[in-house]
Amino acid sequence: MMNRNLKGLLDRIGEEYKPMILKGSRHYLEVRVGEQAQKLGVADLEERYKYSCVIVPLKAPQKGMKVRIDGRTFVNYAEHASGIAFPGHIAREAGRSFKRFIPNDSMICNFT
């Protein structure tokens, strides 16, 4: 069953971060799905995805702390057409088929 609100939220996140995205990048930013749902006023998704994150592959490293993460952390992640990636269960709940996300062997999370 497709969750239109979730699909719309993923589309919106991809659009918001579009200028920063570079598919295949080693550097990435984590964006909390619940916080984005709150900004858009989608209450049913805010609590449900409170601890879920979308990753945004970055064109360039950001200022701030960076942490190296094993790319295997992102096994079963799906890639949105915009380039953002998210856990497979979110893709299934959005009700769309997405391309499999292929991370680098090691990824670098940027905290800003």
Q: What would the keywords be for this entry?
A:
112 residues; alpha+beta; four-stranded mixed β-sheet; three-stranded antiparallel β-sheet; 4 helices; 7 strands; 30% helix; globular
Word description of this protein:
With 112 residues, the chain is of the alpha+beta class. 30% of the residues lie in helices and 26% in strands. The chain has four helices and seven strands. The protein has helices spanning 4-16, 33-40, 43-48, 88-94, and strands at 27-32, 53-57, 66-70, 77-79, 85-87, 99-100, 106-110. Strands 2-1-7-3 form a four-stranded mixed sheet. α1 packs across α4 (88-94).
Strand line-up across the major sheet: 2-1-7-3
**How much is the radius of gyration in Å?**
13 Å
Helix content: 25-40%
Provide a count of the helices: 4
Shape: globular
Secondary-structure-derived class: alpha+beta
Distance between the termini: 36 Å
- Report the sheet-strand fraction: 25-35%
Runs in which pLDDT lies below 50 for 5 or more consecutive residues are none
**Major sheet characteristics:** 4 strands, mixed
SSE order, as H and E? HEHHEEEEHEE
Strands, count: 7
Mean pLDDT: 93
